[in-house]
Structures are given as C-alpha cells and as structure tokens.
Amino acid sequence: MFEHAPLEEGAWHDAQALQVWGDALVAGLNAEGLGRARYGFTVQPSGEHGAVLLLTRSQHGLDHTWVMARGFFASAEFRPILELSRAAHGLIEAGASIRRGNASRVCRTLHKRARFCSKKPKRGA
Q1: What is the number of alpha carbons within 13 Å of residue 24 lying toward its C-beta?
Q2: Domain coordinates of the chain in residue numbers?
Q3: What does pTM read for this prediction?
Q4: For residues 1 and 81, is the Cβ–Cβ distance under 8 A?
Q5: Which residue in 99, 112, 98, 89 sits closest to 32, CA to CA?
C-alpha cells in the first residue's frame, strides 16, 4: 500500500472516492504475473461510521477477504505505511528509469527498483 496514493481521512464518507482508490490499488496488485493471486475490491457502506473496505484475494479457487474498517487506517500499526505513502506519492513519475552502472531499466514499482539495484552485476555485461 505504500506505493499507492494515501487514503486520506476525508474520503471515508464518499463511497465513490473510496471505490476509485480501491480500484487503483487492485489494478496495481493485478498488474503483473501469471499464476499470481487476483484481487477484487468493494466498498460496503456502514452508516455513520463511514464505510468498510473489502479486499478479496483469489488464488487456486480459494478466496480470502480482508475487512478493513476506518479504525485500521487510523491505527498505530498502519501509521508508518501511511507516512511513507505520503512521502513517496508522486515522487517517481511514470516512465522514470533507474540506472546502475551502465545498466538502465524502467521499473513500475518501488519493490522492482530495489530488487534491480540490489542484484549483483554480471561480469562482462
């Protein structure tokens, strides 16, 4: 979630804004890899408490659903992820490339950038 736009406090009473946020999150999760899990996202209205977010992971015919309420995003456990997300959001533009020595690569995620930088260079390449 830290590579995705942060979910700000004001969005909790706007189901459409939550759905747009969730759809973008799921698009990033589903972007790569054959045989990987597939994710789905729905917003369940919850009256005066805002909404509840349902993230479903499907793999090998099995589904697992995480129920994420507003309290999760305000918790001490999630706070470091939110702070990192706020700091990193918009920092790297689409199509940006990363260089290591003579090698250069366009990597869409921070995870792939870190993996590219940490690989040992091949001799003669």
Answers
A1: 12
A2: 9-74
A3: 0.69
A4: yes
A5: 112
Question: Token digits for 29?
Answer: 């999760």
Alpha-carbon gap, residue 71 to 78, rounded angstroms: 10
* CB-facing half-sphere around the CA of 111: CA atoms within 13 A: 7
CA end-to-end span of the chain: 34
Q: With helix as H, strand as E and coil as C, how does 43-98 read? A: EEECHHHCEEEEEEEEECCEEEEEEECHHHHCCCCCHHHHHHHHHHCCCCCCCCEE
Cα 71 to Cα 44: distance, rounded to the nearest angstrom: 15
Residue type present at position 90: G
Looking at per-residue pLDDT, the higher value among 3 and 45 belongs to: 45
Residues 109, 29: Cα–Cα separation, whole Å: 10
pLDDT value of residue 123: 60
Using DSSP's 3-state secondary structure scheme, residue 118 falls into helix
| pLDDT given for residue 27 in this prediction | 87
Q: CB neighbours of 65 closer than 8 A, spacing ≥ 6? A: 54, 55, 56, 57
Q: What is the pLDDT of residue 124?
A: 54
